[in-house]
Structures are given as structure tokens and as C-alpha cells.
Amino acid sequence: MTERPPKIALFVTCLVDLMRPSVGFAAMRLLERAGAEVVVPKKQTCCGQPAYNSGDEADARAIAQQVIDVFEGYDTVVVPSGSCGGMIKEHYPKLFADDPAWKTRAQTLAARTQELTQYLAENLDLNDVSATVNGTVTYHDSCAGMRELGIKDQPRKLLATVDGLELKEMDDTESCCGFGGLFSIKYPDVSGAIVDKKADNVEAQKTDMLSGGDLGCLMNVAGKLKRRGSNVRVYHIAEILAGMTDQPGVGDAET
Amino acid sequence: MTHEPHCQDFLKASEKALKDDQLQELLNRTLKSGFQKKRLMSMARLPEYDQLRDQARDVKNHILDHLDAYLERFELQVKKAGGHVHWAQDAEQAREIILKICQNAGAKTVTKGKSMIAEEIDLNDYLQDAGLVPIETDLGEYIIQLREELPSHIIAPAFHLSKTQVAETFKEHHTHLDPDRDMVEPTSLLKEARKELREKFIQADVGITGANFLIAETGTAMIVTNEGNGDLTQSLPRVHIALSSIEKVVPTLEDATLFLRLLARTATGQEQSVYNTFFTGPKRDGDLDGPEEFHMVLLDNRRTELLGSEFRDILRCIRCGACINHCPVYGVTSGHAYGWVYPGPMGSVLTPHFVGIKEAHLLPSACTMCGRCGEVCPVRIPLPDLLRNWRGHAFNAGKPGGLQRMGLKVWAWLAKRPTLYHAITPIKIWGMKLLAGKRGRFKSMIGAGGWTKTRDLPAPQGGTFQSRRQKGER
Ligand code: SF4
Questions:
Q1: Which of B118, B120, B174, B182 has its CA 20 to 30 A from that of B3?
Q2: Which residue of A10, A19, A65, A67 to mutate against B (max B Cβ within 10 Å)?
Q3: What is the ipTM of this complex?
Q4: Which chain A residues are Cβ-neighbours of B385 within 8 angstroms?
Q5: What pTM value is reported for the model?
């Protein structure tokens, strides 16, 4: 019997879909390069985090039900975002605590869902992404990915396989960048002060690039770096691993 | 100075804190290279740290399941040891009970050890209005009492002040001392406070302390301090009142030591606090020192309500302050921005319960959901979940309102309609892309809230992933 390639549904996340499609394309390339067959279900939109974190449980549940409907038929669901991955894995089952039928479905989906770097490093055991990116990079550990999903070593392991790339760890890489979704809009000054510290730590490393696994955080830090006139380019880890750093980074002007 | 909540001022108060360079420098230094680093170091010296935390969580949960039984046992043992036990339903009752004890003792001066519960029930004001002179003896509390301020941190009440500010405060209030005295060295401040307080200790008729743990098997109340002022408050005056909320009870001495191992380590990175004082009843015949009367005031103040609520887990809190020390929001706003006695994550869970979600709705949302508070909590309180629960209550009460609520609703409505969503979003995104041109980011943007006030907003790449894929892009 020949082994069939793993079939993966990609949850691109609303932010990637709307703001930075190249992260989605990078994720597809990586998964395919590792031998997987990738589908992108058309009916997907958002994981429901904005509603959930704003206390709007009814809408969060409705959106979660839709995601479950769309994705439950696949063996594996991969998400290029720690916080959306965390939403599905950690929080969907909680949302249906009082609804046994939906709770079971949510748990099943949760068990099949993986964050991109986690999946690449652990399941596909990808030990060479076959990419070349010349330069130095520092990596920001996004909170949800790290604390809800345990993502820490996986991206570093993958980055180490990129030819020409050197990782330089910044101070306080585990501290929050101050994004927090709507928090950054509701409390702009507080959020701005927190991301200032993150930008300090990034700039102190004098790297060419900053990377991370969550586009929200990256947009936040990139926005601060650009406001400060920094030349550090910001890329999602999928883009780096796929060797897609010849395009403008997050917040960079087109040349 | 009353402790009326003003949690609705969070935005204004945090802006003020952000502009205070000295405060920012203090926060940065004390939290990062102080509390955070020391906690890590002390954890490294205790390999079974995480096991202890599980154990602590389980013991606390067990206590909460049998709270009434342990409290009754504690009451019985206190009485056996010759002490009195007073049950207070609410703040008002607790204040009245304490005042009555003070009056019966003919008290004029009352010394106090540090007690967050006393802050919670606004005790100082009440005693003062009744003609008594309450004097805080914990250095930090003493300083903020002189300045008529609220504590800004649960374990370091004067956290927000610099040495210079403390020196100024002392010069302003200790007017009988030489105005030109040298107060550059922190030790000179300590010495001066000590000298001032020494007389008060001797004058005091009643001493009031809090309690970190109440030990049911022996009827013992216990406090930890680093200054030893709690010991003097408890042992010098003729009457000692210990004030504690009901959830501080633990079954045995052994259990108390489990929490002691975690408390100091998590709070300040010490192996143990400098003074660990256990007191059981009043002075017995033959004892060399100790109070003649011992009164235990057990305060509910709506904690039994918490016990039956979705916020039950917060009753495990041992007030170590670790969640506060690691909170990125507290790290730039400091404690006063939160507008009531308990700041940071634990405060943002407790305060809405005490002052109402309408007043405190800004606090649970003043959080990035980074999860670090839950990660460092020694009794594993799921603080982010509790904060999110409060957001649910706030949402049901109409907060956020206005534009924010509408935006959320529109987004949710659209997210539930994939076909429409994918028809509309590419158009909107191309529009934004056009606006941004080749700049790659917006310096200002209508509808982005305050985002662009402090940072640029990266522009979309153009097209949505789905629409571009539809066109065959890979
Ligand atoms: S909630 Fe946890 S971390 Fe925060 S003060 Fe209480 S015990 Fe400490």
C-alpha cells in the first residue's frame, strides 16, 4: 500500500487573508514542500477571537460553530497564527462547556488543529526547509502561541535550517508586544508604551529582520518600528522559511 | 482620604503615568531586574516548584470546598486559646466591630501592620473620623499614609515613589527634625521612620494587623513581613486585633508552610520572608509578652458570593503580587491607574466584584490577554479566563458601547456570512491599498481608533488571499 500524502486544510486567518496574503501562500508552499496536500476551504472567515475577547459570547459561539462546520471533515487543520490556533484548540471547547454535542465536535477539531511551525517541526519533521535568506533575524515569541500552544523551540529549529540566516535572541523575547487585538485600539497609549519596549529590544539586537508567528503582533511591532524610523524589516516566519524575503516586509514601502 | 473607586478614570490616569518619566524608570527597574529576575532565580533553586504549585492549588480548592468547616474549627480553637472571634458580613460591620473594640480598650492611638483588607474596608478613615489616631507601621504604608495616597502595589504599597519623594514627604511631616538633615541614603530614611514609629509603638493602645494565613487546627493567625513591624504591632499594645477575610484559612500548620514556601519566592524571590509570625490567642499566664486581649475579625465582604460564582478561583489568591509584577499593562501604568485598592490582573478580577462592573468595566479589558499572569500565579489561578468572564458581564451591560460595539457586531455579522464576506473584503482591501499607495503604511488613518497615535499602521498587501488564489496565484 502506498502512503497517501497527509491532507491538510489551511485556515489562513482573517488577518492574513486581508492584510498579508503572502503569509498564506508561504504556508501553502511550506506544507507542499514537506509533501502534504493542501486545501483552503472557501467558506472560512475569522476564528471569532474579536467577539470572544470582547465578551460577546453569543457571536463567538456562532462563529466557532461555523469554523467547526467548515473544518471538521479534514484530518489536520493548520493555522499560521498562534492566537487563532489557540482560539480553536484552547477556547472552542470552553465555549461549548454546556453543550455536550458541540463540545465533542469542538474537542475533535481542537485535537486536529496545529499551528504552522508546530506542524512543520513536529509532524512533518521537516529538518530542512530548503530556503536561503541572507541576514540576521530576531524572533518575537507571541503570547498565545507560546503560552497556549507551547510554541518556543519549533520556530527556532526551523529557522536554523535556513541557509544564510542567523538568529539573534533579543531581551525579553517572551514579553507581550502590547497588541492584544482590540486592546491596541481601545488603549492606544498603553499599548504604544508596551510596544515601545518591544521595539527597543528588537533594535538593540541590530538585526536585519524581525520575525514571529502571529501577524497581529508583527503589524503592531512593525508599526512602531516604522514610526521610529527603524530599518528592521518584519516578516512572518512562514515568509522567511519559504524564502520570500525579497518582497517588502510588513509596513515597508514598495520599491 | 477615602478610597472611593475611580476606575472609570483608567485612561486619563494611565496617560498621566505614561508621561511620568520617573515612574516609568522605577517600574522598569523594579519589575524587570527586581521582582521578575529574583523570582526566576529563586524558582531555579527549587526544582519541585511546579509540583508545589499544583499541590497549593489542590489544597486551596479543597479548602474552598469545605470553607465553613475549617472556619468553624478555627473559631473554636481561637476561643480555646482565650481569643474572641467576630464575624463581619460587610465592610461596615467590620469597621464597627473594630471601633467598638478600640473604644472598649479606651484607645487613642492605634498602630497598624500592613493589611490589604484594612484598605479594602477603608478602616483608617473610619477610625480617624471617630477620633482615633491610626498609624501605619509598614514603611511603605506609613509613607502613603502621610501622603494620603492609595497603595499602588499589594506587596509594595509605595512602589510608585522615589527616594527623593519619600525624603520630601518626611521633611514635610517630621517638622520637629532638623530641616537640613541629610536624607540621601535610603538607610537614613529607614532610620528616621523607625525612630518616629518607635514612639508610636509604645504609645499604642491597640494594634491591628492583617493575616496571611489562619490555621484551623491551632487557631493561629500568621503574618509575614520583612520589617518586623507586624510583630511589634501585634505584641506591644494591650489589645491585638487581627483582621482577615475568610478565605485565608488553611487546615494545618503544614499547609501554611506549603504556601509560605511559594509566597515569598513568587513575590520577591526570597526563600522566606524575614519575619514569619504566628500568634495564638492572647498572652497566657507566664508569657513574657503579648497582648492581654486577642480579637479575630473574620470578614466576608461578599466572598461567599464569589465562592458560588464563576470567579471562585480568585479566592485561591495568596496576594503574592506576581501577576502584577509580570503584567505588561501594570508595567507601564502602575497601580493608581486601576482606581481602587487592588491593581493589576488580580485587581482587575477583584475590583469589578467589589465596586460593580459598570464602574470597573475598563479594567478587565485593560489587558492584552498575554497570559503571563496565569503562568506565574503560584496557585494557578486562570486569571485570563476570569478577566474574560468579566468582559462577558461588561458586554451584557452594554460595555463597550458606541462605535466599538457596532464595529464588533458588523464584523461578527459578516464573519458569519462567508459568501458575502468574500465578496466585500477584496474591494475594501483594494481601496485601502490604493489609499496607502506605495508607502506600505499609514501615518494616520480614520477609523483606526488611536492606533496611529503611537505607531504606523501597516497597509494591506493588496487583494485578499482568497481572491488572489481564486485568480490562480500560488
Ligand atoms: S492572583 Fe496569583 S499571582 Fe496574583 S497575587 Fe494572587 S496568588 Fe499571586
A1: B174
A2: A19
A3: 0.96
A4: 94
A5: 0.96
